[in-house]
Every structure is written in structure tokens, then in C-alpha cells.
């Protein structure tokens, strides 16, 4: 048989011999090129989609967090107003006096909501069973709250001075519209003088407030959908009203919602394949889920395959028509192209095919060289864009001015003026102006430590006026270290973290101490508090900024750490030490030499 095949091949014309020999050499390189380019294009499309979804998810989470914080701020202001109204309430038992007090209470709740449009409605239930609402009274419905167990549930959650979020639910009482599910913040209100409970405040946020954010992000494509899923696996926000408060069962692979986020995975099967991306919102134990149809993404990939194989078929046809002239002319160039393609497949992009002929082989070589060059340029562009993106993100984080801080401080100034404390109001206004003068300045990013301490002192003075029972502070900075250059607004996030996570939940007045000391040729500035402290796992979550993996637990601390690294290099940064019940120490290490303000 072997002799027969050899004899048959020997009798064939040279054209057929070339066709039989070189057909595999033509087909296999084209297949390799098509598969390689298709695989690279497929991965590029999917990765680009993942990155876009994650960027959109971060924006959605930021807007959700703003809604939650604004609602908490509105609850704090309402609590202050309720306590003030009870302090001014007449002891007269007459019905007209009770009616006047009820009108004052409901008007105050309605006015406070004007400052915070994210909150839809507010209801205050006093200890005597009277219900006051920000919307027109609906006595027959709202009285149901007295038998719902909600006030008792908020009290059982330990709500002294802290608002507690209740699960999203649809109910026909204590809401302005029974048809729309609401997320409710509950907070017990106490008489600050006697410590007795006045009642329970409920602030509602409509589901449509969150759904509107998801609708904006998903409006560009009908194949992309966003959902918000709570800890029980229910859909609590979606542009599709029919899915609200139903189990999230969109062909999600088992355990996807329980994995560490952000995570992206392909779920489903066949034409129903989807790219699912899950991002956690730990503040409410929610998950933001995005579903993108792979059928839409694969459309471009299929077109790329069709074009690649169509080009290969054309080359094959030309090779058949010109087989008699492709003996030695085609063998050597094909070997060179194949050799270059193997190097690219092995990861070496610094190669080009030397073929310069103007036939099909030269065309293949030209396309190959162009593709490799475009891939190299794309990789360089991605590297540069990632570097710029990191700088932009740091600049954006650094430039953030939290609006609720301004709102609360202005409200404090208003209360001080209303109480006739003009000097305290004047001092608070001056401190607020000085604080934002530094925040909004367009000068150097590095300032002397003395300037940063002055800015922190203004911030602490404002926070001390707003929270007189929460904190007091001490500052101990040696004179020889006042000229050390530090990043602007580097101490304020550390102080803010100490107040909100160390002292506010302590239950009694705490102390913040800011110190500076020499450490060889460097300087170490520390922010210490005697608050509730943190367990080791929480410290580890906060200090994960050093690895740069995932979403940092504290944006402010992450910003300070990254800017120190950016300005001074790897030997410098932040360290965190904490013990539960004893407090927390955050140390910032910077070069100890004085530098000119124009260094950056």
C-alpha cells in the first residue's frame, strides 16, 4: 500500500503535488490565526464588559451610599427637632394644645424632608401611641404600626443614638404610598435631660429611589439589567416592578451571591448564557447584581470569526488557482510566517514577519505584522491608561467633599443662632470657612504640618460643637516638626475615622490625641483614640489598602495611604494598631526634612 501511494503521488502533476503538500500549511496557519484572534477578541470583549460593569457598579454604590447617608442625616436632624419640640411643649391637657403640638410636629417633619429629597416620608410614634407623619394623616392605616411590633424591633436592635435599618417591605401603614416598597430607618428618640424615651422615629426611602439609579445605568442596552438583592436573597430594587420582593433566581450558579465580591461569572446555559457581576454593599448587607446577555457580546465575536474564515477561504482559493507557480516561492515565506506566529503564540510580541512579497503570503504576513503591532500598541495604551486612571481616582477621592458634613454644620450654626449662642455660631462659621478654604484651595498638594494641624483643629472644633458629648481632643506637635511637609487633608480622614468608628459608638465621651515625633530622619504623626477599638479581622480589612486588591474598606484611609506612596515612595505610608475596648492608633510616616510648599 505504501508503494502504491508513493507511486500514485509520483504520477501526479506538480500542481496537484503542491496543492496536496501546501494545503495543510495554508489551512492550519489560517485556523491558528483565526482561533488566536478570536480568543483574544473574545477575552477582550468580556474583560471590557466586566470593567465597564464594575465601574458602573462603583458609581451606583456611591449613589446608594449617598442616599443612605443623607437619610441618616435627615433622621439626626429630625431627632434634634423632635427633642426641641418636646422641650417647648406646654403641659396643658387641653385638646387645642394637643392639636397645636401635633400640627407643629407634622410640619417640622415635612420641612426637614425638604432638605433631604432622597427620604420620602417620616413617621414619629410616641410612647403614648400617638402617630405623627410628614404626609397627610391616615389614622386608620398608620395606627397599625402600634400592633406591628416595629417600635419593639428597633428597640431590640439597640438603637440608642444610632439608626437601625429595617428590611425592605411593602406595607399599607406608615407610608405615603402603600403600593411602593420602602426601606425604613428606625431610631429611638430620648429626652436628653431625663434619659426617658420619647418615642420611635421612622424615615422611609422608596424603592423607586434606588430603581431610578439602576434604570439610568441599564438604559443603554436592553440586554443589560441591574438588581439589588438583600441578605435574604430577595430582589429589593429593580426597574421591573414585577420582580420586587421575589427570590433572585435568574439562573444564578449556586453560591455566586455568597462569594467574595466583586466577582464576575458566566451563568446559565445555551442561548440563556449571561455574564453575572456581583458587588457587595456591606452597609446594608446588600448585593448589586448585573446580568449581561452573552448572546449580545458574542455577536461581535462571531462576526470576527466569519471575517477571519472568509479571508482564509479566499487565500485557499487563490492558492488553488496559482498552485503551479507556488513551488519554491511559497514554501519559504510560509515557513517564516509560521515561525513568527509561533513566537507570538508563545508570548513574544517583538517579532515581525520578514516576508515582503505582494502575493497572498505577503498579505498574510502584512496582516500578521499589523495585528501584532496593534496588539503591542493596545497593551501600551492600556498600561498608560491604567496609570492615568490611578492618578484620576486618587485626585477624585482627594477632591471629595461630603455634603452631609456641610449640611449638618450649617444646621448646627442655625440651631446655635436660634438658641441665641451668637459667639459659638460665629466660631463655628469661622472654623467651617477655614476648613473649606484649605479643602478647596488650588495650591500645593504638600503643605507644612502646622497648616494641616490648623485645618484638623477647625474640623475638630466643628465636630466638638456638633457632638459635645462624644469627644474632646489634644494636640501635641513639637515645634521642630511643624515645618514637615505632609499631603493636604491627610490627617482629617484619620480623625474622622476615629470619631465615627471609635468614639460615636462608645456611649460616653472619648479622647482623640494627635502627636508627632522623630523617627531617625523621618517623622511619625499619630492619631490616637480611646474608643471601642477594632478586632484583628477589622484591622486587616482596613489595612488591605496595602495590597490594592478589591474595594478598600475605608476610602478616606485608602486615599491617604496612596497619596503618601505617590509623593514620598514605598518606605512611607500608614500603620494601624487597635485593641477592642481600648482604642485605635493610626500612624502616618513621612520624610522628616522640611521642603518647600511647591514640591508637588
TrEMBL record:
The lineage of its organism: Bacteria, Bacillati, Bacillota, Bacilli, Bacillales. Residues 328-380 form the HAMP domain. The chain crosses the membrane at residues 18-38, 305-324. It is a multi-pass membrane protein. Keywords: ATP-binding, Cell membrane, Kinase, Membrane, Nucleotide-binding, Phosphoprotein, Transferase, Transmembrane, Transmembrane helix, Two-component regulatory system. GO terms for cellular component: plasma membrane. InterPro entries: Bact_2-comp_sensor_kinase, HAMP_dom, HATPase_C_sf, HATPase_dom, His_kinase_dom, Sig_transdc_His_kin_internal. Pfam families: HAMP, HATPase_c, His_kinase. Residues 471-594 form the Histidine kinase domain. It is an enzyme of class 2 (transferase). The keyword Transmembrane applies. Its EC number is 2.7.13.3. It is found in: Cell membrane. It catalyses: ATP + protein L-histidine = ADP + protein N-phospho-L-histidine. CDD domains: HAMP. GO terms for molecular function: ATP binding; phosphorelay sensor kinase activity. This is histidine kinase. Its main location: membrane.
